[in-house]
Amino acid sequence: MREIIEKIESASHIVLIAHQNPDADSIGSASAMYSHLLRLQKKITFFCVTDTINPSLECLPWFDKIRHDFPQQADLVISFDCGGRDRLGVEEVPFLINIDHHASNRGYGEINLVRTEAISTTQVLYDFFVENGIKINAKMATALYAGLLDDSDAFLSAKVSSGTFKMAATLLECGADSELCNRALFKSVSLAAQRLKGEMLQQCRLYYEGRVAVTEVSREMMESTGALAVDCEAPLNESLYLPTVQVAVMIRERKSGGFKVSLRGEGSADLAAVAEHFGGGGHRHSAGFIFEADGMNDALTRILTKLDKELV
Fold first, then answer.
1. Sheet arrangement for strand 111-114
2. Sequential pLDDT tens for the chain (312 residues)
3. Separation of alpha carbons 101 and 96, rounded Å
4. Which of 16, 62, 87, 196 is most buried by its number of CB atoms within 10 A?
5. Residues with Cβ < 8 Å from 117, sequence gap 6 or more?
6. What distance, in Å, lies between the first and last C-alpha atoms of the chain?
7. What is the pTM of this model?
8. What does the alpha-carbon distance between residue 293 and residue 257 come to, in Å, rounded to a whole number?
9. How is the beta sheet containing 286-291 ordered, strand by strand?
10. Which residue in 145, 130, 133 sits closest to 175, CA to CA?
């Protein structure tokens, strides 16, 4: 942590990176650090390569500062919640500080603050602020709370502990707008998302005696409903509510080619290992990857074959 503080103090232009297709944890972490760096009167660029970001995240502080072109001149980069270097969205960067909580993170930065026991990257950053006596203002608290709320699945995750609620309580005392975060992340949905959800749940299929739920999302489904990629998340998570299901799989056909696969689980299967087998990563119970396959059936067969070994 001392190294991170020293690098920040000596830097003149700092780039904060939220990963590709960012969630509240990545945006929230970068947003909280943005507020801190403003107090230090640093020159800052808030970067995310994805130009169509989940509109639910627009409520987070400094969202309007996000830029999609990487600056030509910067002497320090800090990435947030990027489990792999490929999620940065840029090939070459100057000195890199990697702040994350993914078990699949291999420490690709010059400095790596990776705590896999943390429920969110915002928790890693919260601990960094607290342990270094850095005051958390209301904007920082809201940003940190949003990441905690999202990655804990509204405090329903198996990783939730008493420490999780202590952090949430402290953030509320610091001025976090919990109502804003709750409404934006869990009580705001578009008609397009609802239409997609109906189609996804209608064609959901069960495998391995009902232990695996698979949902296939074609390009036609996305185009006909007008939904965004992020709108696939809710139906995927809800398929885990089925009483026999231990693993939920979503295979989405990408407009640019190939397939995006998201894995969610509650059993003993190590989904991070499955994702890493196909070049992806994540956590034991939440992982994903992008890969090429000869059609949806081929993609499903290969995924189920790998899952079979984990389920045994």
1. 66-67, 43-47, 13-18, 76-80, 96-100, 111-114
2. 899 999 999 999 999 999 999 999 999 999 999 999 999 999 999 999 999 899 999 999 999 999 999 998 999 999 999 999 999 999 889 999 999 999 889 999 999 999 999 999 999 999 999 999 999 999 999 999 999 999 999 998 889 999 999 999 999 999 999 999 999 999 988 999 999 999 999 999 999 999 999 999 999 999 999 999 989 999 999 999 999 999 999 999 998 899 999 999 987 889 999 999 999 988 888 999 999 999 999 999 999 999 988 886
3. 16
4. 16
5. 101
6. 41
7. 0.87
8. 9
9. 205-207, 212-217, 247-253, 259-265, 286-291, 281-283
10. 145
